Structures
1.
Amino acid sequence: MKKLKLYCVIIGNALNRRQSLFSFIIATKERYTDGVKWKFLEHKGPVFAPPYEPLPSNVKFYYDGKHMKLSPQAEEVATFFAKMLDHEYTTKDIFRKNFFKDWKKEMTSEERSKITDLKKCNFTEMSDYFKAQAEARKSKTKEDKLKIKEENERMLQEYGFCVMDNHKERIANFRIEPPGLFRGRGDHPKMGMLKRRIRPEDIIINCSKDSKHPVPPPGRKWKEVRHDNKVTWLVSWTENIQGSIKYIMLNPSSRIKGEKDWQKYETARRLKKCVDRIRNQYREDWKSKEMRIRQRAVALYFIDKLALRAGNEKEEGETADTVGCCSLRVEHIKLYPENDGQEFVVEFDFLGKDSIRYYNKVPVEKRVFKNLQLFMENKEPDDDLFDRLNTSILNKHLQELMDGLTAKVFRTYNASITLQQQLKELTNVEENIPAKILSYNRANRAVAILCNHQRAPPKTFEKSMQNLQTKIDAKRDQLADAKRELKSAKADAKVRRDEKSKKYRIEEQLMKLEVQATDREENKQIALGTSKLNYLDPRISVAWCKKMGIPIEKIYNKTQREKFAWAIDMAEEDYEF
DNA sequence: GCGCTGACTTAGCACAACTTGA
DNA sequence: TCAAGTTGTGCTAAGTCAGCGC
């Protein structure tokens, strides 16, 4: 009864934070213990990519120096390549090979017999045409830009929301991925392949029986309409490169995602309570008689100490050659009994998720070192380091140690606890706001380094650094002037006061610039966003802001505040992870 | 156990949108 | 007011992990 009453309140005012927080707790504790994710789900279905518009006749394609009119299908695929002409991708052999193979499939038999060598294809007119179009888009008038904006807004309002259990929720990706050329990361064997256009007939709709079902475009059909309330997705289709399923799901601000996120951090907090026991256990296991247990224990030590990912097996030749902890190979580590004055050093060098390089030299305990020597005995470089271990074995073991424990919980736990410790260590209530924020970013950075969240240095980095330095120099000159003026303004008390406050103001500005420069330099190759969004319990940041008198807007932008609304609502100043 | 698949989270990059200072 | 620089958002690839059938 009480529950029912609450729901009514929620329906009446779905956007009221306090109330949605209640529904949140109810949902987690009472409503969905049986894998049911919702009772009611209604939406408008996906937005398809716009149909292909053939090129104007003056934009020509040349083969072997001669103009050649392509069939619409072949032309469309050619434009995908033309649009990427300036990208390094198009110079890579695999990319070109894959593209050409798939392009030929789209050609008429006549085209296929003529076009036999990609090197003889000239796409430059197409490429120039698209560049001109992009330029034209940029230089549109204010009114035109506003019109586009309004149209986008209209689409968002129509397709960007759904109703799930009495809440109107934002959908994350309501637009179907347009066709194009597949761009894998790193050395992907499938780069350049044609990602085909998705049609209504490829689409599975998921919604509740008693909802208004989404309508396919006129004269078309959905592949299937199902009513599976044990899953959270609204739309799915099978992608043609890997044959995997893609989904349309809800925005991170939605109840269903927020709840899950909250749960994730609660699991990490439970790990905090038993991590000492687990650490003692794996240290004991280093001595085990059984090889499989020693391997498990050393791997777990790496996952815990270095925040490595679990490392599932991957199908060879289907994806880029990347590894995580359990899939490390002998060639990925080097052992140094002594290195730079430290004993038992392990050097890691491998490509992880997204082909981001993990390079680290770490001193380890002697037992770990000896075990690693043992694991590597009589093995080839491309043999598995942990040949008696995989993620499934590891996670089964972890499950026995703590309910809900898996390898990735260690990343969440270590990231969040590091942030909390670093914030305690680095920040001082006495400092001013820019200094506090620099400290926050430094704490955030410690986590990003731990998790190896890298980014390519921004293209404009050097220049923007230089600009900042110029500003700092100018500000220093200004400060020197102000100091001189203050000195010479001895007699008049009022003038003195004014000069003093001016000097103070300039000092503040200078400090702010210097802090900004430090922050930016330290951030050159480190991405803070990923850890902020996925690994750091937002309640730690909310509590810190409250304690330090920092407005939450300084730490989280609008999107982030929406995602972490539950935490902003929940966490008090004394929150402890 | 073992391989496979589906569902869901995590990830970096490209580009659009906004901000700032000349 | 505009270009340059900076930040935010969208996109979609690439992971993790549970569950299933054998």
Note: The two ends of chain A are 34 Å apart (CA to CA).
2.
Amino acid sequence: MEPSPHFPCLSHQIASPSAARNCPSDPYNPPEQQAEHLSFASGEPSGVDWAPLLLPRPTQEGEDEAGREKERSSRRTRKVVSRPRFAFRTRSANDVLDDGYRWRKYGQKAVKNSMYPRSYYRCTHHTCNVKKQVQRMTEDTSIVVTTYEGVHNHPCEKLMEALSPLLKQVQLLAPVMGML
DNA sequence: CGACTTTGACCCGCGC
DNA sequence: GCGCGGGTCAAAGTCG
């Protein structure tokens, strides 16, 4: 099945109605608003510990600092900055859903009370430090929980890739349209 | 050879 | 203070 680069939720069966509202790539539902719809996570027997996933947590600044020792000291004095976080569930055989962005995996941890590990990904765009966590639910192994942290400050690469031929055509047609 | 994944070690916050 | 759990780092390995 060819995943849709624009609407990643369409390439996966949405596991819960609220999950659709929380799709971060849905252009009609910006993340700022989606963050208000996190209540779907609470009170459900999911096998996933939602609280740490959804609650805002301190985020370090100055991640481009060179040197591990410098990094350690910066972590000790990290500022408390709350970033938008939003989670949604998809029913998919793949752990990582294709949301159109490129991600680099930087860690994986076994999670308590869960037989599946949690994976940590970072957006590969150099100016974008959006992160996401991916974890498969214990009670329903066909459901994958994806938690995004932050908002992309660059266009979706796959979307731009798909649109570029179209944009070229528009540019070619622009002078013609001006004549009409 | 660059981009990416794997994985053990490390760090930090929090509860006891 | 100590141990635990979660998050991140970074070296080594893999892949195209």
Note: Confidence is low (pLDDT under 50) at residues 1-47, 58-81 of chain A.
